[in-house]
């Protein structure tokens, strides 16, 4: 193997690394715990023989001269005067007022300032509000324009002061359709003429008015048993009368016509309609499922599938609202209307006429005053004189209901649930005339 050359370490200050060079003793070395009062502290390397200059302390005369000079300078600069007291400078302080008195004096000023500023702020706030309100008055929505036009078309634009706005409380209720309600009932008035049932009993061979009354009485009982909506009952009776006015029916098919009509009305009005088997059972299995479905097809074909018609119930709801009726009066109106459904004589009256007559007869029965006002006349479209004939029929039906063999309607409205309105005495004013 090749031998390695070892280089000796470089010497530092003439000595080999690792060995310390002894430090030379400095001159004038301080003796341990010696006196330091006469030591020379000049390390600048200058002349050691030269002594430092000594500043003598300020005497009283020198101090007085400084104070005089300071006072002179202050006066020249228009500053606060300087007083010399006992050889010291005393600055004159400004006169301090009493804070209690200042508050007492300044407090009303602050209040006035606050009141003025608050009034100014309120005035500023009121200005944009008045501008906004004026702007709101000028804005006209499409809904308001359509509502105004519909009222003009219906003759309701220039209402008298004694006419009550019955829809004022439902302005925020979207389901009430306040903007279109006048147009809706104007359309119903036009549509009821084309869908009205005329006298048909003369064309029927095996069916008479008494049989129809028995059928309607039974259908009202079935309607109550199934707990169906009122709309379903009125549509059922309409379908029965409409079918009988277009087709000659056998006596044995009359009940089949009734349950099939209620099946159709239930499908049209109810959320959960009764099934076909329910009607089979309610008829004591007099008719089969196939017979009910067959009659259903026959009815729809005869009616041309036209089921959207204004029944008396459509007008009853509106006219009861027009009369601002309480619960007792509402039950009385529906009691008289259902009594009218049973009677064939009422078929010749339009649905709106039957509804308005029921309201008028109910007001007469309950001795409401006035019996007929301008609000009811405007919204129903009938005067008191026009309702007398139909109202007399309804009151006569009410008078004989307690002694009649068909008592389903009477028993229904004799219960506390319906305020027992059937037990009230009929209107004597209409019975006597």
TrEMBL record:
UniProt entry keywords in alphabetical sequence: Cell cycle, Cell division, Cyclin
Entries under InterPro entries matching the protein: Cyclin, Cyclin-like_dom, Cyclin-like_sf, Cyclin_A/B-like, Cyclin_C-dom, Cyclin_N, Cyclins_cyclin-box
Gene3D superfamilies documented for this protein: Cyclin-like (1.10.472.10)
Limits of the Cyclin-like domain: 217-301, 314-396
Phylogenetic placement of the source organism: Eukaryota, Viridiplantae, Streptophyta, Embryophyta, Tracheophyta
Pfam families, per the entry: Cyclin_C, Cyclin_N
Annotated spans, Disordered: 1-57
Entry's Gene Ontology molecular function annotations: cyclin-dependent protein serine/threonine kinase regulator activity
SUPFAM superfamilies: Cyclin-like
Organism: Papaver nudicaule
Name of this protein: Cyclin N-terminal domain-containing protein
Domain Cyclin C-terminal: 310-427
Family: Belongs to the cyclin family. Cyclin AB subfamily.
PROSITE patterns in the record: CYCLINS
Keyword Cell inner membrane: no
Superkingdom, taxonomy of origin: Eukaryota
Residues in the signal sequence: none
Record-level GO BP terms: cell division; mitotic cell cycle phase transition; response to gamma radiation
